[in-house]
Amino acid sequence: MVQLKKISFFLFVYFMFPLWQSGTAQKDESLILTFKKHKGPVYSIAASPDGSTIASSGDDRFIHLWDKNSGEIRSTLNGPLKPVKYLTFSRDGKLLLGAGGTEIRIWDLGDGSWTKYSRHVTHVYNLDFNQDASKFLSTSLKNIFYLWDREEATVIHTFEGHSKTVLTATFSPDMQWIASGSLDQTVIIWDAKTRKPVHTMSAHGGNIFSLDFSPDSKLLASCSMDENIKIWDVETGKIHKLLTGHDYAVVFVRFSPDARYLISASYDMTAKLWEVATGKCIYTFVDQKDALYAADFVPGGSQVLTCSNDGTVMIYEISPRFSAEYYYFDEIEKEMENSGLFEARRKGENRDAYNTRQEKAALFRRDLFEKYYQKHLLDLDE
């Protein structure tokens, strides 16, 4: 009975202060925008390096470039005849790389022109620019993947080493490594200069869908049909952390710009925010109603993007609340209860007094989350 009372109190507190946007309360107070301009599933999302523009592509074959804050479409690009399943910006934000079917395109976002790259004979699955966008990688439904020269529009190297389809390949930020993941359940780390394999890891018990290097290039995250995420030590090829918690295939992983967090997207209809230092999932985003295809951080690291088969793109704010509630739930609950600010409307309390108390409670709650978030950061440093 006591535990039930505690839970009821906390639920009252949680729903007492919803985030209101355009007159409608969101289910999750960290959800700040929902983009619904695609007709059908949204397969890919990418944030521009300055964080102001989001690119999204879907089954409707539209590639929209839209304002991150307002959700208003700035422009729509002419795409291939097939839906674009993957998008990524160059590091300077001037180019957008994508593919639909067997066709790869790079759009010049200055004048809207585009260049076509043809070599694949099966569906292109994954793409990645190098740091200066002079080269890019592409994978398809073959057991090889290509390194391209962007200016010459030619393949300059074919990587061979996997026994089955290569679904993902990516450059490390320091340009020392290339990593690839395959249906053969292995991850290969290649020397980017010699183009020879350095580590071959029997990584997962299923198809490997996505890879991402940490910003310092020391760690590599992989995710799989086996529902797991693994973080690898790049230098040794050994497992650094195993992250478990999704209930279906994990199809996308990305490190935050400061490497503090990892975001994952899954066919289980959720995205999860993981704390890299501890390997713990500190928050689960549950608003979308169908399988997720991608999740990423907006440059700056305080917001995340998700896209789904339900036709939506969602933007969330990463809040101190996530860590504070996860690690200090009981302490926070006790302080809120003792404050007396979070009680239901009291007998004889007029509306103005009640509204004033709500405002004080909201500030108290926000400051409380920040206090325990800072405590958690200190605990991590010890």
Short description:
The chain has 2 domains: 2-12 and 323-381, no CATH class; 30-319, Methylamine Dehydrogenase, Chain H (7 Propeller), CATH 2.130.10. It starts with a helix and ends with a helix.
Explain what this protein looks like in three dimensions:
The chain has 382 residues and is of the alpha+beta class. It has two domains: 2-12 and 323-381, no CATH class; 30-319, Methylamine Dehydrogenase, Chain H, CATH 2.130.10. Helices cover 17% and strands 43% of the residues. It is built from three helices and 30 strands. Strands 3-30-29-28 form a four-stranded antiparallel β-sheet, with no helix packed on it. A hairpin with a 5-residue loop joins β16 and β17 (177-182). α2 (320-339) packs across α3 (351-381). The chain is globular and about 75 Å long. It starts with a helix and ends with a helix.
The strand count comes to 30
CATH topology (level 3) name of the largest domain: Methylamine Dehydrogenase, Chain H
Give me the CATH superfamily of the largest domain: YVTN repeat-like/Quinoprotein amine dehydrogenase
Unreliable spans are: 1-26
Give the CA-based shape.
globular
Assign the CATH class of the largest domain.
Mainly Beta
Strand order of the largest sheet: 3-30-29-28
Count of helix runs:
3
In total, the number of domains comes to: 2
CATH architecture of the largest domain: 7 Propeller
Rg, Cα atoms, Å: 23 Å
Q: What is the terminal-to-terminal distance? A: 37 Å
User: Helicity, in percent?
Assistant: 10-25%
Largest sheet: 4 strands, antiparallel
Kindly report the average pLDDT value.
91
Q: Structural class, judged by helices and strands?
A: alpha+beta
Strand content: 35-45%
